Amino acid sequence: MTLNPYARSMMKLRTHVAGTALAALLCTGAAQAATSMPTQPPGLSVQAQSFVEVEPDKASLSARLWENTPAVSSLDDSEQGALREARERLEERSRQLIEAMEEAGLSERAISAGSLNVYQEQMNQPQGQNGEQEMMVRTRVERPFDIELSDIDRLNDVLDALVEAGVNSLDGVQFDLQDREEAADEALVMALEKAQRKAELMAQTLGAELGDVQHITETQAPVFQPRMMAMRAESAQGVSDDANAEYRPGIIRIDAGVNVEWALAGQNDSERGDDERGAREQDAQDRPDTAAAAQE
After folding, report:
1. Does pTM surpass 0.90?
2. Which of 89, 127, 177, 218 gets the highest tally of CB atoms within 10 A of its CB?
3. Lowest mean pLDDT: which of 23-37, 157-171, 217-231, 261-275?
């Protein structure tokens, strides 16, 4: 189909107008996106760590009782009677230990008796005249005990009672806090206050002013470090005999860390605000022209 010169001229005009309108719309969208995107304000990010040290007010003790059967040949299977007798002796000693703890002023809930453990131990007998060693076996029955002390001033009395009750092993005393949250809150507040001081110092030194807090992150959750008992007694047997034995719970340290971000309010805020207002006004002026070009 052959178009006359007038028709070809009108088609070129419509194509040109459509292209101009599309370009104007694309430019308008880009300008609106650029002006609507908020300018990132200057900010200040500060990290701070702090800690508190408090005296413990709680103690946990771990002790064990055990009884052994006589050592017999590994080929001997007549150990059942000896094992029953060892278990009965252990149960009687366990009862006496609990009574001793209650007489020392501990409540029934503060004393936890663990389950009975039974295991064999192998021992080599000295070599005989023929140079051979006989493998001997004995069985140990054992019961662990955990004791909670809410008053650490009574620690000496409890240790004396444990020794008098004949504990075979005192595995240690661990000191802790009854209210950990209070100490953790104190450490966290101190870290936040330290971050505030650091931020104010940095902003003041650089001639800026702190704005609103933008973001807060806890970089380190409060960490508790319970302390083991430091004792001056030579051995557990010397606890009840040495009147000068000294038990030092030490200090528990709780660490905390934070990261805080502030906006900065400086001298360039007014200039930045003027620039943003000018860009919005220019965009509002450009919109009618763009709309008119699209209509044409």
Report:
1. no
2. 177
3. 23-37
6 in a domain, yes or no? no
Asked whether residue 295 is assigned to any structural domain, the reply reads: no
For residue 239, give the 3-state DSSP assignment: coil
Locus of tokens 């000295």: 126
Residue 20 in domain: no
E strand or H helix that includes residue 28: helix 5-36
Same domain (yes/no): 154, 227: no
Residue 220's CB: how many other CB atoms inside 10 A? Answer: 16
Tell me phi and psi for residue 285, to 5 degrees: -70, -35
List the structure tokens of 222: 């409060």
Structure tokens at 126: 């000295």
Amino acid present at 181? E
Tokens describing residue 277: 């207002």
Neighbours of 90 (CB within 10 A): 19
223-227, Cβ contacts within 8 angstroms, sequence gap of 24 or more: 223/254, 223/255, 223/256, 224/176, 224/177, 224/180, 224/252, 224/254, 225/252, 225/253, 225/254, 226/56, 226/174, 226/175, 226/176, 226/252, 227/56, 227/174, 227/175, 227/251, 227/252
3 state DSSP class of 69: coil
Kindly report, residue by residue over 215-254, the tens digit of the pLDDT: 999 998 777 766 665 443 333 444 444 444 556 777 888 9
Residue found under tokens 């953790």: 184
The tokens describing 195, both together, are 């971050």
Run of H or E residues at 215: strand 209-224
Q: For residue 141, what are the domain limits? A: 58-120+134-176
